[in-house]
Write a structure and sequence with these properties.
Nuclear Transport Factor 2, Chain: A; NTF2-like_dom_sf; alpha+beta; seven-stranded mixed β-sheet; globular; FrzH/put_lumazine-bd; DUF4440 domain-containing protein
């Protein structure tokens, strides 16, 4: 009986881990695309009508265009942009996933700023895509991610 319960738990944990890897894939690909200055890969991670926002120091919400973001990133030499993240939480319900990631951002190998990203992803055509990103940015009280 115990063997059956343990087997069931292992299968459940394994399936959950695989689901998280699928959800996390577009997030990791976004930062890989930034680091490698790969606009084509970057385009594949977003839904058609994705939203990108930043919370400013005074609490205002600034909207950015995904197209402008991709164009801006594409102007940097390969390796100049690196965002290191820690995935702290993944929550799912059907075709919706929410992922929270503190980060440290490096420009040309030097620490620039830190903050947190909140991603909302949707599963479309059996593939997870980023629908919404909102982030914070600060230079103080940062714990660099190695």
């Amino acid at each position: 009986m115990y063997k059956i319960i343990i087997l069931f738990l292992l299968i459940s944990i394994s399936g959950f881990g695989q689901q998280n890897k699928e959800i996390e894939k577009p997030i990791h690909n976004l930062f890989l695309a930034m680091k490698n200055t790969d606009p084509e890969l970057m385009k594949t991670v977003f839904t058609e009508n994705a939203i990108l926002q930043t919370i400013t120091k005074d609490g205002a919400v600034k909207n950015d265009s995904i197209e402008d973001f991709i164009t801006s990133v594409s102007k940097f030499p390969k390796g100049d942009l690196e965002e290191r993240i820690i995935i702290e939480a993944v929550h799912t319900d059907g075709n919706l996933a929410s992922v929270f990631t503190p980060y440290s951002f490096y420009l040309k190998g030097k620490f620039s700023h830190c903050g947190a990203n909140s991603f909302q992803l949707v599963k479309q055509n059996n593939e997870w895509k980023i629908q919404y990103i909102i982030d914070t940015r600060r230079k103080d009280h940062c714990q660099e991610i190695k």
